[in-house]
Amino acid sequence: MRIDDRIIGGALALLSLAIILGARGLPSVPGTTFGPALMPTLIGIAMGVLSIRIFITGLLQKSSAGWFDLSEWKGASRPVFCAVWTLAGIALGIVLLPVIGFPLYGLAFALPLMLLMGARPIHAVLTSVGLVLVAQFVFARLLFVPLPAGPLPMPW
Amino acid sequence: MTIDAFIGALGIVFQPAVLIAILGGALYGLFIGAIPGLTATMATALLVPLTFYMDPIPAIAIIVSTTAMAITAGDIPGALMRIPGTPASAAYVEESYSMTLKGRAETALSIGIFFSAIGGLVGALVLMISGPILARIALKFSSFEFFWLALLGLMTSALVSAKDPARGFISLLLGILISTVGLDVTSGQPRFTFGSIELMGGISFIPTMIGMFALAEVLRGFSSSASFPPAFNTARIRPFRGMGKLLMRYPLSLLRGASLGTAIGALPGVGGDVSAWIAYGVSRRFSRTPEKFGTGHEEGLIEATSSNNAGLSAAWIPALVFGIPGDAVTAIAVGVLFMKGLNPGPRLFLENPTMPMAIIMTFFVANLLLFPLGWLAIKGSRHILAVPRNLIVPVILICCILGSFAINNTMFGVGIMLIAGIVGYILESNGFPIAPVILGLVLGPILERNFIMSMQIADGNLLGFFERPIAAGLGIVVCSVALVPLLSRVIRHLPISTRSEK
Amino acid sequence: MKRLTIAAAAAAFAWMGFAGAAHAEWPERAVTIIVPWSAGGGTDATARAVAAELQKRLGQPFNVVNRTGGGGLVGHITIANAPNDGYTLGVITIETTMYAAQGIPGAEPENFTLIGRFNADPIAVNVRADAPYSTVAELIDAVKANPGAIKASGANTGGLSHLAWAGLLNQLDVDPSASPWIASAGSAPAMQQLAADAIQVVATSPAEARALVEAGEAKTLALLSGERSPVYPDLPTTDEIFSIKWSPLPFRGLAGPADLPAETTATLAAQLKEITEDPEFNKFMDGRGFSVAYQNSADFTKTVSDSRTGLVESMKVLGLAK
Fold first, then answer.
1. Which is the CATH superfamily of the domain at C128-242?
2. Is the ipTM of this complex over 0.90?
3. Interface test with B, best of A92, A94, A123 (most B CBs within 10 A)
4. Which of C37, C48, C55 to mutate to test the interface with B (most CBs of B within 10 A)?
């Protein structure tokens, strides 16, 4: 996804302004001269200068591809579904994984994605089930990071 | 170091228990390092409970070989899938992945492992000969020198990783900006936390790195601008083929990389992450074919990867000689040494020289083990590329989710990974490099802390940054690195008569 | 072939899981111990030693996790906010009595279940080995003679090290700003600054200065304490030199989030007491120069509340409290 440099430059300029304003709101600590605001302010100034540079590049180029160039996502619809499934699946996982547990979530996320990407069903089922079992075991037993188990009882 | 100590150390190291510990650690490190999202630090931390039950030398040996192997093995997902194992290997992941895209995965992996091992051996040799002297020099480094060094590493990463330096610097600033989120290191005040307790703890580089490299790469893989590595075209892989020839062609790169790695790696706190970047930058600066860098060229890869492993050994210098750990791994190791009654410090070298000698010797053994184990890993990596994409991509994604979760055992890390992935994808599509973001995030707090400390010491006088001799030298290097590209651009636009004077 | 291996492995793992049947009592799984200070420092080292002993005695892993940042605040808040099921504990330090006065809530003594104290080591004044002063009195004279020239460090601004040093100057009627404080992430980077000759004084415990003292790079001048330390009997105290009373005593104690189950607290308290009497643990602590100073929950709570009263008063005097 290519975005016109004028938009990027403008967005970065706004970001640097927000940083500088945000830094001004930081409290200074009793007894110090160089407080928490110094570094963010410097970052904001430097980014502000560079964002103007990007904006000017955009002005000079006058790209013909439009403000947002989404051509790499046009064409087949299956890859778009895959990307959406990936992002939405991870986002939903943040809420769902602690509730339904890793084994169930892992299957619900990975298996459809494999099928969507065109894997043979038998391969997809075997790989995703194996993956979930091995990961759950490795994390719980070897890495001492107990993953949420959820309603599916794990033998360990 | 006396001959007696050397022979005594040989006797300690070449015992079944120690050798088994080294082999076990190496296999474990290979396993952890090769899985995207799991890091050497994590591997070491998980070893600590095990070391309680071990004798001191096997306990240290297992940590040494685990980290050496995990960091080297971290280059494997880097080369095959563009997922770097450490911030240091982010310096050359672009280079090695480009090689894989050209169908030269075998060479990329071979360089990663072969020159890592040689770099590690050189580092260990330097450690053995001049450990205490290097430690004395490292002790001369104050916040002024650390500030310049961190800045040098950061600027190099911005300059070498983008065609347009302005974009490189914006990536870098974004990374430093992310590092300021959380409680301020000097005053404890919350910054940009928006009232969130989880943001108060800061944004960890691991989920950010996983997201920006791995998730962004998966997203790009779905788009039509994707390019995939071809399968190995030879049925029989011959790991390390052609390495001897490369060694003959680029001996200077190897030596320069390893010595830079050792010198910078010995500086507590900054060394490990910076040295690979500076080595890569130096390599490009002095190369006869700088235009080939970033397209799958061997030279920079050799220099950076050998410096990476040399720095790994060197990080133990301040830890062993003064008990000042340079990174999380050596901090854990220092803790283990204390627990075993082997208090690191100059007294250890004076009273019991066999022990530090034996520890250094385990570095040799561990790095030598990299050859056979690395050979096996390269052999096995063919299977990774042979797995169809429609199976491996979901597996990578699950690894990403679990790796981000495991940082603090919260889904917060997964959220960071998701956002970093989307941001990373957009940044890269628009010519902003990812690696400086990661380095900025890692070195940002070090830069800031040392900057604030130095400002306080110098009472706000910027000239104070040039008053100490080493600081002045580093400061001049940093300023010239920043100014040379700018000046050369100005000179190019001047009339020809002035240019000829230069 | 590969599938077969995975299936076989899964079956083997499943069997292993059933073999290790569940326990009923705490701890039935791994316990996390949060250390709010960096790996390699004094709090980290002592916490790891205690965790190792707990693991030995209670049969479950006690994993030490360093959550650093903001002068210990991040880790302390993490402990206080952890679920109070006994599976997340932490080692807390004297800074918990000071955050509220700095205007940061959420990590006050009331937010924790105090299980017991295992260590308390006074702060010492450390200078470079080649410094022109050989006693703390000469150092104070040098501060008076050249206000602003002698820079001190040891921790974050407003941290205990800072308070200890500024409080000492204040007790001696020297303006604390005569020796500016340099904020550092802890004692290790401060000692590095001292060795590199960038600062002149480090206020930290003698144990944490020891490696560089033995390396001939630094020397310890005096303890900020009411009485001499049994570990360092030759070190004079500032109380005896200047006839003052100023002994901020940092502590390290085992704690959990507020309202831990009573049985868990009782088990831990009993184990901690045993650990501090264990000869091996004492040998380790002594070897690194840390004292073993056990206090049970009630005494520890009183120590904490006493230090809070004293410290907050000094912070107000020094302008470090809001």
1. Periplasmic binding protein-like II (3.40.190.10)
2. yes
3. A94
4. C48
